[in-house]
Amino acid sequence: MKRVPPWHHCVITGGSSGLGLEIARQLLRQGVAVTLVARNETRLGMAAAGLRRQMPGANVGTLVLDVVDAAATRTAFEELAQTTGAIDTLINSAGILIEGHAEQLTIDDHRAVMDVNLFGTVNACTAALATFGDDPGTIVNVSSVAGLIGVFGYTAYSSSKHAIVGYTRSLAYEVEPRGVHVVLVCPGEFDSPMVDSLDADRTPENREHTLTIPKLSVEQVAAETISGVAAGRRMIVPGRRTRAAVLASRLLPGISDAVSRRRIARVYTGPRTSLR
After folding, report:
1. Does residue 211 belong to any structural domain of this protein?
2. Does residue 275 lie in a domain region?
3. Family assignment (predicted)?
4. Partners of 91 in beta bridges
5. Which residue among the candidates 157, 167, 173, 268 is catalytic per the annotation?
6. What share of the chain has pLDDT > 90, as a percent?
7. Whole domain around residue 74: which residue ranges?
8. From residue 137, how far is each of 77, 127, 196, 213 by CA, in Å?
9. Is the entire prediction scored with pTM above 0.85?
């Protein structure tokens, strides 16, 4: 397996919470300089302050930025590289999730999810590549198991995550010849504010379907992501049972699909009566 160069300055989108924040915590413990990127200044400041309390002297910076804005993202990355030093690693962890029956999701729901999950990733990658120049670097794009298979209630979310898979795999062919290592990460569900919010109001069918794969801790997902990137892997699926489920969906698609359909049928209630 190809070995990637040591990380020095890692920029993490979605860095104020969830997986992005946990990856930052683990990288800081390894002595990597980290810049957290998020659009909410208050939450971003609280996240950085928490890391500094846990690890006095940790080299953690913040960048208030909405990665949906392509021009602002490119400018911000250029200024960041000039003021804090070269960026050699980008981890795209920013994402949102809207769950529900397909006919009850609006086109605005789909656009909102695509804007953040796909186009935010594209914008950050484009900006990072411009700062890399001819130097080697690493790009890590966080998709999801929902980017490899279909999931009840995830017509918007799964579509965006499938798009990230296609984008990342295509990007790798283009930039790896010049020394940029591109990694695709596809976790199942894990403990995070986004999943906690989903749990409060998810459809019963989605709850049953996603229970096919056990939920992981965010610490495990972050640790396997970091170790996988360091080992030179191009695709990382954290969790042994998650990897088994993904493999089964590829090698035994009929059986995997039948299991999912049976689970959904047990709790199926259909769309809610009031459309948005």
Report:
1. yes
2. no
3. Belongs to the short-chain dehydrogenases/reductases (SDR) family.
4. 12, 140
5. 157
6. 88
7. 9-267
8. 14, 13, 33, 33
9. yes
